[in-house]
Inverse folding.
């Protein structure tokens, strides 16, 4: 796999941390997408997607995350996404993914978000 684009999966006690690195763009994410689809959905609370090392994301990358989220939500698990970069945050706003997922500034904040009841985005995943 290209060193620039990667996925790291870390199973914690009550959630799974999925960290992406590099560009999540068309033509670059097939190996990442395959690894993401192969993840076991066995976790107590849900998933944290860490986008802190992502340098760019296009509609293909957002589609990969949305498809994973649809798989996860069928099992009543939650997803929170860590976004700290202003550019990536703007792309989340443009794509309206920030209306579907809770966006956190840190792993601790994201962990609290997936454990809390009641976060409802402006858009339901089914409407996205």
């Amino acid at each position: 796999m290209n060193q620039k684009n990667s996925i790291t999966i870390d199973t914690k006690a009550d959630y799974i941390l999925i960290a992406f690195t590099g560009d999540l763009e068309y033509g670059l994410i097939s190996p990442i997408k395959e690894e993401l689809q192969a993840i076991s959905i066995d976790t107590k609370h849900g998933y944290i997607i860490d986008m802190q090392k992502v340098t760019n994301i296009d509609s293909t990358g957002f589609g990969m995350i949305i498809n994973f989220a649809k798989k996860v939500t069928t099992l009543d698990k939650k997803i929170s996404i860590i976004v700290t970069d202003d550019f990536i945050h703007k792309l989340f706003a443009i794509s309206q993914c920030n209306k579907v997922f809770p966006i956190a500034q840190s792993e601790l904040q994201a962990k609290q978000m997936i454990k809390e009841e009641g976060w409802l985005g402006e858009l339901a995943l089914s409407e996205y």
Observations:
- The chain has a mean pLDDT of 86.
- Helices lie at 30-37, 59-73, 86-95, 107-115.
- DSSP finds four helices and five strands in the chain.
